[in-house]
Every structure is written in C-alpha cells, then in structure tokens.
C-alpha cells in the first residue's frame, strides 16, 4: 500500500464522494477560500460540545466536520448504493491536489477502525460451526493457498498492509480500552498452572521465569496491583497515554489547577501544528475532542463531572478515542519536525531495516500513519510536547540481579521534560511488552 498525500481542498469534496448530496441537487460551486473572522476562545471558556450536537445543530459546509464524518458511526444515506470506505477514499485521492498536507494513513486508519468497531459485535459472539461454515472455511483455505503463490511478487508495502490487516482483525476483538484487571491475571498468561490469586510468589520455572519474577516484583515491591489493557492495534501507546493523562488530572491534588494548566498548554501547541504545515481545518476537531474531555474533569455548573466509568466509556467510543489518537500523532510529528535543538536525527531508525531515515520519511511513515507502533523518539517527543512525565516499565525476559525473595526488579525508562511537574500530578506509567503498551495502575478499584 503506497502512502498518498491529499490537500485540504480534497476534504471539501468529501460529501460528494460519499453521496451526501448528489441526488436531485445541482453540483456544488467551486470551493472558495474561507476566512475565519471569529476570535478563538480558549477551551476553558468555551462550553463543552459534542460532535453529534454540532452536526445536528448548524450545518458546516466546507469545514472539518466533513473529515469528522469519516470517523463517526453513522452510515451514509441509503437512497443510493453504498460505496466502500476504501474505494471512496481512493477515488478522492485521484482528484487534483495542491498545497498538500500529510493526512494519508491516519485518515484511512481512523475510518477503518470505526468500521471494524461498528461491525464487531457479531464477530465477538461464538456459535457452533455448521456444515455451511465448514464449506466456506474450506473455500477460504483454498483461496488463501492460491494467493500464497503470489506473495513473492508483493512489495514490502503490500506485505505490511496484509500483515496490518490480519493484526487489526485479531485486535478488533478486544475493546479499545478495557476495565482494570489485577496483575495476577497477567501472570497467568505466562504461568497458566500457577496459583497466583494470593500475594505469594512461586514456580519460577520455564521459558518465562524472568517475566514472572518481574511481575511479582511489580506487585510486592513496586506498588502496582493492576493493569488497564488497550487494544493492540499499533495505536496502543497513544491511546494508553491519553487515557492515563486524563486519569492523572482527575486524581491531582488540585484538579481545577491541573485542568487549567493542561488546557492552557494544550492550546499553546496549536501554532506548532500550523508551523509544521497542518492546516487548522484538519486538526481542530481532533484537538477539541481531547480538550472537551479534559474540561469534563471540572465541568461547568449543572454538568456532571467525569468519572472513571464515564472516562472508560468515552475511550471505548471509536469516534472520540480515535480522534484523540490522531491529534497526539500529529502533535508528535510536528514536534519532531520543528525541534532542531533536540536533534532527533540520530534516533530516527527504520524499525525493520535498521537503517537511518530522514525526519520527513520517519514522521510520515512511522508517526502520522495509524497502526504504527511508537518507539523512543515518539515517546520523547510527545512527552516534551505535552510537558508530561512518562515512565515506561519494560517487561521482558531479560535477566538481572534477583532479590532475596526471588523477584527481579524491572527497568523503568523515565521521560521528564522541563516544566512537567507544574500541576503537581503524578507521572503517566505504562507497561511495555515487546510491541505493546498498557497502563499500570496502583489500585484494582480506582
């Protein structure tokens, strides 16, 4: 799958591509340059709004709401044959483009994620196989066997796309963000026969012995009792970070100060995005999804405050959750592009080939595209862009000096940018297993 670039002008024609106004209506006039005259209010002074309310209220032609429609759960009108999302986006990319902005894989990825989420309820349910299922399964197997002969003719990008589709299909069976589960459940994945429901530690045998020792160290010495899992779709770092970022604001000694500090800094990052070449019409809805959720921690009078249950519900909503992921990816990209003083160049390495890549190639391929895992450069950039302390616990099978009780201390990599402790909140702590990030929790019941 080759990467493409589309211009902001392409977004203006999205309603026509998706059949949102073609029937019995004249073709729209050529898009005109839109000039904003209203003064942007800060997120703290603007009342919280939801996307659905804005779309149901006043129509916004030629605005970012057309892009937001790509990540909503609402199906297109049924007065004409439905066009697949991929086919429509490919048709859109064929149109003339000018003044391009990089919105390729994350635009397609957000739409795909919502489609997978919307059709997932039927896949999760398991039923007994029938004769028809066996026949279809056999046909699928024969088809895959035939297709395997053509794998050698595929490019690296095609192979990556096929692998990513399989990965997304398997990952889609797990919620975007799951409720908290105790660490002993994670331990059972590496030692299924062990009795780990108590606080004791035992049975350090087998190929995953060091993993078990480190999990037990987290429980007995590290003060961590639970884990909050996120879907392993390549966006797990950004999704876990966003959830834990808002969660730490909720548990701050002074939530009001934490909200004000966070919103003030978050709004100050918008000029950074514009200097990096991202137009406001592209990122403003994604930014507002994040800002409005933070606002709910200390809501306006008469509004209900954000709770752990409602925060989880919001992050299980594909439209909100994926919009926040997109905003954080764009912010990470902008920071890497425009921060020469940090000199990210020595760390920009292709994860598959091990070769050095330039800044533009790195951010367009491994930051802006959804489904691409984050590594040290992305974590460092986003930590500094958000001014948030991040600690990553690396859970692997490496050896080390054991303690008297047989446990093995786990390595924490800490990212502490300047000014990250101004709001008095705790750091965001993530648990990394090769290829995946989850959130560590101090309590089983938050």
UniProtKB/TrEMBL annotation:
Pfam families attached to this UniProt entry: Peptidase_C65
Listed EC numbers: 3.4.19.12
GO MF term list: cysteine-type deubiquitinase activity; ubiquitin binding
Source species, domain of life: Eukaryota
Keywords from the named record: Hydrolase, Protease, Thiol protease, Ubl conjugation pathway
InterPro entries membership: OTU_dom, Papain-like_cys_pep_sf, Peptidase_C65_otubain, Peptidase_C65_otubain_sub1, Peptidase_C65_otubain_sub2
Biased composition (Low complexity): 59-72
Domain OTU: 225-443
Keyword Heme among record annotations: no
GO cellular component, one term: nucleus
UniProt feature, compositional bias: Polar residues: 126-141
UniProt signal peptide: none
Reaction(s) this enzyme catalyzes, per UniProt: Thiol-dependent hydrolysis of ester, thioester, amide, peptide and isopeptide bonds formed by the C-terminal Gly of ubiquitin (a 76-residue protein attached to proteins as an intracellular targeting signal)
Biased composition (Basic and acidic residues): 83-104
Region annotation Disordered: where it falls in the sequence: 19-104, 126-150
GO BP annotation list: protein K48-linked deubiquitination; proteolysis
Name recorded for this polypeptide: ubiquitinyl hydrolase 1
Species whose genome carries this gene: Rhizoctonia solani 123E
